[in-house]
Every structure is written in structure tokens, then in C-alpha cells.
Write a structure and sequence with these properties.
The chain is α+β, with helices and mostly antiparallel strands. Helices cover 51% and strands 22% of the residues. The chain is built from four helices and three strands. It has a three-stranded antiparallel sheet with strand order 1-3-2, covered by helices on one side. A hairpin with a 2-residue loop joins strand 2 (66-73) and strand 3 (76-84). Helix 1 runs antiparallel to helix 2 and helix 2 (16-28) packs across helix 4 (50-62). The N and C termini lie close together (11 Å).
Length: 86
């Protein structure tokens, strides 16, 4: 799925930061379009700050291109799962 998702992301008419972050997420995506990279991983892969990654993710979510679901182990959040909707 990641190559298909990456190809679809490239075609979108969105801002550069959004497109780049979406491409990075697509690179991690499984066949169902789901991935769970950490914010630290996204920062390292994109060269963006934590604040920029968060803002850019929020924009992708607002556009309906990405869905974020929090995962918990007991009462502790362990990670987010991102679902791509391209």
C-alpha cells in the first residue's frame, strides 16, 4: 500500500509541508493505509520541529486525508495510529 499511497499523495494539490509529511506517513503505511510512527520519527524523517509536525498533522486531519486514533495500554497512551484516506 505504501507505494500506492505515495503516488496518490504526490497528485494532491496541498501545501509542501503537508505533502511531504503525507509522503512520509505513506512510506510507513501497511496494506490498509495504517501506520504508527512516533512524532520523533516523523520529525527525524521530515526535518520538521515537533510543533510543525503537530500543526501539519492537524491540517491533514482537518482536510480528511488522515485520521488519528490514540492507543492506550491501561491508562497510558502508547502511540497514535494514523489511517490514510487518499
Amino acid at each position: 500500500m505504501s507505494f500506492q499511497a505515495m503516488a496518490k499523495a504526490i497528485e494532491l494539490k496541498i501545501g509542501t509541508k503537508q505533502k511531504f509529511l503525507l509522503l512520509v506517513l505513506a512510506n510507513y503505511a501497511d496494506e490498509g493505509g495504517r501506520c504508527w510512527p512516533s512524532i520523533e520519527t516523523l520529525c527525524a524523517d521530515t526535518g520538521m520541529s515537533r510543533a510543525t509536525v503537530h500543526r501539519t498533522l492537524d491540517k491533514l486531519i482537518e482536510r480528511g486525508l488522515v485520521r488519528r486514533d490514540m492507543r492506550f495500554k491501561g491508562n497510558v497512551q502508547i502511540s497514535n495510529i494514523y489511517s490514510l484516506h487518499l
